[in-house]
Amino acid sequence: MSTTTNSAGAEVELAIGGMTCASCAARIEKKLNRMDGVTATVNYATEKAKIGYGGEVSVHDLIATVEATGYTAREPDPVRVRPRNEDETAAPDDELRPLRERLVTAVVLAIPVVAMAMVPALQFEYWQWLSLTLAAPVVTYAGWPFHKAAFTNARHGAATMDTLISVGTSAAFLWSLWALFFGTAGMPGMTHPFELTIARGDGAGNIYLEAAAGVTAFILAGRYFEARSKRKAGAALKALLELGAKDVTLLRPDGSERTVPTAELQVGDRFLVRPGEKIATDGVVVEGSSAVDASMLTGESVPVEVCPGDSVTGATLNAGGRLVVEATRVGADTQLARMARLVEDAQNGKAAAQRLADRISAVFVPIVIALALGTLGFWLGNGAGLTAAFTAAVAVLIIACPCALGLATPTALLVGTGRGAQLGILIKGPEVLESTRKLDTVVLDKTGTVTTGRMTLLAVHPADNRDEAEVLRLAGALEHSSEHPVARAVADGALRKLGSLPTPEDFANVPGLGVQGIVDGHAVLVGRERLLEEWAMELPAELARAKAEAEAAGRTAIAVAWDGEARAVLEIADAVKQTSPEAIARLRALGLRPILLTGDNRAVAESVAREVGIAPEDVIAEVLPQDKVDVVKRLQDEGCSVAMVGDGVNDAAALAQADLGLAMGTGTDAAIEAGDLTLVRGDLRAAADAIRLARRTLNTIRSNLFWAFAYNVAALPLAAAGLLNPMIAGAAMAFSSVFVVGNSLRLRSFQATR
Predict the structure, then answer these.
(1) Counting CB atoms within 10 angstroms of each CB, which of 16, 51, 241, 353 has the fewest?
(2) CA dihedral 625, 610, 691, 683 (to 10 degrees)
(3) Rounded to the nearest 5°, which phi and psi values hold at 159?
(4) What are the tens digits of pLDDT across the range 438-481?
(5) Distance, CA of 188 to CA of 198 (rounded, Å)
């Protein structure tokens, strides 16, 4: 049940069906807010309504109001943490399948209709009747969603893009029918019954089936790709919920083990977590010690050492030893489930972007229809005759056909996103573009975004001018036998420089401290200073100084000793990407203020900030996942328009909350799906290119809409005055479409900054 109670009454979330544009959401919201005690927000992108209500209003009343407005409403399925690979039957594709079928029908049948109209060589005797046969299913069957929506809008005294499409295509089709059956277009050589000729400007012999079929096919294509994008709106939540483990090894009171689905865990159950396995749910360690990689939830670059009494979080990875954990929270109470709700709330809270075409058509459509009716009445009243009056009225409708308005957004988006894909930038939809106009702040996650997200050996500090290669050979050989992320960084660094490493003997892991063993006859220790202290060894002054400097810079420092003496200090950290400083400079050049946001400690964060050129006052460190959302909200409350760049699950909610979310393609599925833009290359410089491309694409859409609208403003008076016959009106409409497409194609010249 999605209903909750608060001090003001109750709150419910409804899934809304049948919306085709942002004005639909606005109309539903307006109807709901007219009810006593109701405060509603309807999100077109997520197709959900968040409603607060009280008094005598019930959920049934809310649903009835939505349905009376012409849409459907129901309570959505509750949020449930679902393990990855859980078997489930895919829901039927109720929305896309019929839309795809209509699109295929429209394209297959419209192509020959347009070809015959445009290429005289294809116009055989009675070709008009073949065009009618092919165009009729396009206008009636394929275009039915537009006609149905227009009828629904009309019932409620509203007009949208669907109204414009329906009126324009229907007028062109009906005029063609009239011309074929009663004019000179249907039978070559026949005289028009009313003795009207094309020379008089009536257009009685002209048909416009190609306009009716072509417009329907074009707009259906845009609607189909829009629907596909909208269906992915909830994919971030799905990816987040699939992080959990599928099965868990449950420990019975008698000590035996049993594998059960994670969903069967209860608070108080004890379960086993082997090295490399995910922790099934939130709990407390009761036995064993290990390093736990929690980066997917907390953003911490260094695994956390845990031992009995420490808390662990579900979906984090056991990177070290064997653990026995007692479950403290399960199901919807876990941190993972709470993060899922954060993502859902952030997505629902983002205001639906009003589409420019719908804003224009909301005023333009009623004016055009009224003008057409006024034209018909004016000419009838002046004794011009039914045919002349109808011809002028049809010219008004055809000249105002929404082909250019309908193509303005999808063609620019198609070219812009295609060019973006070539440059490693994925734009999810036109709503994203409007978010880039007023951006003034960019919040950058540290781990995996500004830095590589991998522990790397940065420096070797040997004592007494000892050979660095010898230190790497002995330390790397020992660490190569460990799976700890810090050990992997040392081993990988040694392998890169030396090529091969000897095999250690008597290797042993000292939980929480390091490793020890025999390498080439030397007794070697690698780990924390405490490990050396247990063997009665101390760091010389120069090594202690190197260790202190490394830790002051926010890096991990480990000691290397052999044969009873401390020989070196190794410096390990999450390295800054080579391109990050340049990327920060480019973001500043776009007028953006960069802010570094991380779950790491402040010393680490400020060290990274200095390296990439971010001011210390713009560093926000030691934040939890929910704090990242709060930071973005606080900046928005201060009047900032915020872009967020991140790659981890812990960034997903903040990406959804931000005015513009940019997800690194090298990150998690949850982050990528929550973001508005995806940077496939994982290069932060692409963030600046993405914002530049999005702004240019938006400007192209706006100029397309302006010229498409301006063309109508200039041509409509001519059509109403009877100075344009439908044939000229159709040619003008075609030219406006060609202009819009040509303007959009200029986006192909966009170049990434190098």
Answers:
(1) 353
(2) -80
(3) -140, 135
(4) 899 999 988 778 888 778 888 999 987 778 899 999 999 998 88
(5) 14
